[in-house]
Design brief:
CATH class of the largest domain: Alpha Beta
CATH superfamily of the largest domain: CorA soluble domain-like
Number of helices: 6
Strand content: 15-25%
Shape: rod-shaped
Distance between the termini: 65 Å
Mean pLDDT: 80
CATH architecture of the largest domain: 2-Layer Sandwich
Order of helices and strands: EEEHHEEEEHHHH
Strand order of the largest sheet: 2-1-3-7-6-5-4
Oligomer: single chain
Low-confidence stretches: none
CATH topology of the largest domain: Beta Polymerase, domain 2
Length: about 300
Amino acid sequence: MIKIFKSLGGYFELPKAVKNSWINVTNPTPDEIELIRSEFNVPEDIFNDILDPDERPRVEFDDEFQLVILRVPIAHNNNGLPFQTIPLGIFITDQQTVTICASPNEVLPTEQPSLYREQYQQVTDVLNFVLKLFLRSAKIYLKYLKQINQQTTQIEKELEKSIKNEELNQLLKMEKCLVYFITSIKANEMVLAKLKNSKHYAINELNEDLLEDAIIENKQAQEMAQIYSDIQAGMMDAYASVISNNLNVVMKQLTSISIFLMIPTLIASLYGMNVPNFLSETNWAFPIILFLSLVFSASGFFLFRKKNWF
C-alpha cells in the first residue's frame, strides 16, 4: 500500500508526489516496489535490505540520500509468536521522504497515517520526523511488553495446576519475543547514539529534547524487556521443576493404588489355585477371601497414609 502526503506530518493525502512530500509504503506488492524504485530512485539493494526481516538497524549517508533503518514491534502471530520485530526504513532525499515497511505496524499505521495533528506535535524537519518515529516505536515496545507481562501472568496461573508441557511452550514463545525485543531495542539505541553524534544534522533545541526523550523511552523499554526476560528465565526453570514434581506425585499415587489392588489379586490367586486348601470345602470360602482382601488392602492403605506415602 502506498500513501502520499503533502508533508511529513501527514496532514493532507495527495494523489501524486510533490517536492518535500512524504511517501508511506507498507507491505508493498511487486508492482508497487517497481514503482517506488523507478519514481523515487530508491536503490534496489536498499529496498531489499529494508524488506529483509533480519536486517539490522543502521544509519547510512550518501551524496544523494540518507537512510535510517530501525526495528519496530508488530503484533503478529507468526510461528506461534504473538510479537516480533521488523525493519522500518526511512529513505531521505532532497525531494521526498519515503518510509518503507514490509508489514502493517502501529508506529506508522496505514489506517491512521497522520500521527501528529496536534499543534505542539507538528513535524519541523526530517530529523524531527525520524526522532518521533523512534519515540513512538519505544512507546509501542512498552505497550507490547505490558501485554506480554499480562499473558505471562495468565500462563503462570495455568501452570500451577498443570502437569503438561503446553504452558511451558507458551512461556518459551514469550521468552523468544523478549529476546527479539531486547536485541532490536539495543540496536535502535545504537542508531540513536549515531544520530546524536552525527555531523550531518544540526540538532536544534527542540530536536535535542526529542532525542533525549527517545533515548530515555528506549532505555526504559530495554530495561523492562531485560527484567521480564530474567524473570521468565527463572520462572521457566522453577515451573519445569514444579511440573516434574507434579508428575512424580501422580506416579507415586498410581504406584500406591497398584499396590493396594495387588493385595486382593494375590489372595485371590492363592485360593484360586487348583490344589486342596482348608477353605475348599466350606460355603464361606468366598466371603472369607473377600473379607481378608478388604482387611489387608485397608491395612496397607492406612500404613501408607501414616508414613505419608499416599
